[in-house]
Specification:
The chain is α+β, with helices and mostly antiparallel strands. About 30% of the residues lie in helices and about 30% in strands. It has a four-stranded antiparallel sheet with strand order 22-30-29-23. Strands 31, 32, 34 and 35 form a four-stranded antiparallel sheet that branches.
Length: about 550
């Protein structure tokens, strides 16, 4: 009986143990089955891969997500947009890492329950090459940048014009790297890059306040200056002409030039004109003479700018001024020290007296030069000294050479005066600023040492490079055009000319112009070199050589070439 019970007991344990083992085996088998496939209801970036094998899921993601990872990424800063190529920037989709952990054997019942019944929304995982991404964004960053620009204030006539300052922008590289690395994949629109703002020194607010409170009131209307006897209303244009702006640190300011205000007042009222008289250097009795200077009265410049600025903000826009004793700009002593004492150059050339109209231009041009004083360091311009070469200004229509052909123009013949002034400056040792010889040589001039003139195109100018002033005397007489310079000798000048070379024979040319002048021709063309040396008491300048080529005097037949 005992043995029978014990046998039944063992069979019961065997049956129970077998059942447990069977259950465990079934559980493990089920776990293995579940772990071999993607959990049900799993999505990656909205793509359903639930219950698929890892291989199948991998293929789905490769097909549907890889194209998204290859799409160009639009990056923006304000209204500027640039495109980033993900592949070149080291950005890519890592499918293996995305699927990692979604499959695999586990006996954890919670995990198994989640895999069989839960919903998983998995975000893709990426590969990022930091060096390539940095390089890609660094290459695009300058295209997003805006340079900082400082504001400016200026007057256009009497109207103040504000050029607004611009706040600079540059990409914040480190922040941009973080933004792009986390947002580049299939973004909802363009990615706005973080930036750093670079403010101008003076803000737009500062400019606007200064414009409305200081600048605009200055030119809102005339400002009256009065000393109780005389008065002058300065126009907005005159006020603007006297104004200048300063920009220091984060401040903007405005200055009024006192000399300009005084000159404007004198222009508007005779009572404010300076009565001081400069010394003058003139020709009298055949030699230079200094006419003495005189002191006088003019508006007191002390505090004038401040008075005008204050008046610009007053309702009556009036500033009270006073007169003060003023000294002449050129005193008698200064004029005498300029050394205009003796003749240093006298140059002359013959002129064709039979051409009476041309001679009138020689007289008109010489008259404009007679008595002109050129100060030390000053540039003498013949075109400026002549003034407009027009009939209204006293000049006449006469013969000229245009493009190698004889023609006519107002001021014809003034090139002879130009030659006179070039040679006067040449022989005095002054610096040649600009000149141009004639295209054809006229034998009344030194070859290679002459100069033409054409208003607006060809000037003759030299610079007084001595410590002394020079007085010009010019006249026509005795069959010649004369130029004399009065000063103090400074340079010892030497001049040599080469023999004529590169001789060219005249030919026959045709001129279809309506105002054609036929010519018989004859004189050969040639080249020549002219060398000048200059030595003073304390220095010697390098020798200078100028070369010129003259055209031959061709035979000119009026009309088209047959």
């Amino acid at each position: 009986m005992k043995r029978g019970r014990q046998g039944k007991s063992r069979r019961g344990w065997y049956i129970t143990g077998a059942s447990v083992l069977l259950a465990c085996g079934l559980y493990a088998g089920a776990a293995a089955f579940v772990g071999a496939q993607i959990p049900a209801n799993t999505t990656v970036h909205g793509i359903d891969i639930g219950s698929l094998s890892p291989e199948a899921a991998h293929q789905v993601l490769e097909t549907k997500l890889k194209p998204l990872a290859a799409e160009p990424v639009n990056l923006t800063v304000g209204d500027k947009t640039q495109t980033l190529d993900p592949a070149k920037a080291g950005l890519g989709l890592d499918v293996d890492a995305t699927l990692d952990g979604l499959t695999g054997f586990t006996l954890n019942p919670a995990t198994l329950l989640e895999r069989t019944t839960g919903k998983l929304a998995v975000e893709p995982k990426f590969t990022i090459d930091d060096a390539k991404l940095r390089s890609g964004i660094e290459a695009l960053a300058p295209k997003f940048a805006t340079a900082t620009a400082e504001g400016k204030l200026a007057f256009e006539a009497d109207r103040p014009v504000l050029t607004k300052p611009v706040t600079g922008i540059e990409v914040d590289l480190e922040s941009a790297l973080k933004t792009v690395s986390t947002s580049w994949f299939a973004p909802q629109g363009a990615i706005e890059l973080p930036v750093t703002k670079l403010e101008p020194k003076i803000s737009a607010e500062t400019f606007n306040t200064f414009l409305t409170e200081t600048v605009e009131p200055l030119v809102a209307g005339p400002i009256k200056l009065t000393d109780g006897t005389s008065s002058a209303s300065l126009t907005p244009a005159q006020l603007a002409g006297a104004a200048s702006f300063t920009f220091e640190g984060d401040k903007v300011g405005m200055k009024l030039e006192t000399d300009a205000l005084v000159a404007a007042a004198a222009a508007r009222s005779d009572g404010f004109k300076s009565t001081a008289k400069d010394a003058r250097i003139v020709l009298a009795g055949g030699s230079p003479k200094v006419i003495e200077s005189q002191t006088g009265k003019a508006i007191d410049p002390d505090g004038l700018a401040e008075k005008v600025l204050a008046a610009s903000k007053d309702a009556d826009r009036t500033a009270k001024v006073s007169l003060t004793i003023v000294e002449p700009t050129l005193s008698t002593e200064k004029a005498k020290s300029l050394g205009v004492k003796q003749e240093i150059v006298h140059f002359s050339t013959p002129y064709p007296a039979s051409d009476t109209v041309r001679t009138k231009n020689l007289y008109a041009g010489s008259k404009r030069l007679n008595g002109v004083v050129v100060m030390p360091g000053e540039i003498f311009s013949l075109e400026k000294a002549f003034g407009p070469i027009t009939t209204a200004n006293g000049y006449f229509d006469s013969g000229v050479v245009v493009n190698g052909f004889s023609s006519s123009a107002v001021g014809g013949g003034l090139s002879q005066v130009s030659t006179q002034m070039y040679n006067a400056g040449f022989l005095a040792g002054y610096d040649d600023i600009t000149h141009k010889p004639h295209s054809r040589w006229f034998d009344r001039y030194p070859a290679g040492r002459e100069a033409t003139l054409w208003e607006g195109q060809v000037d003759m100018a030299w610079k007084n490079n001595t410590p002394y002033a020079v007085l010009i005397e010019a006249w026509v007489g005795g069959g010649k055009v004369h130029t004399r310079l009065w000063s103090t000798p400074y340079w010892t000048v030497g001049s040599t000319s080469s023999a004529k070379y590169n001789l060219t024979n005249p030919t026959t040319t045709y001129n279809p112009a309506k105002n054609c002048v036929s010519e018989s021709g004859g004189q050969k063309g040639f080249s020549i070199n002219v060398t000048r040396t200059r030595t003073s008491a304390d220095k010697t300048l390098p020798a200078e050589t100028k070369s010129w080529t003259y055209q031959p005097w061709n035979k000119v037949i009026c009309g088209k070439k047959p």
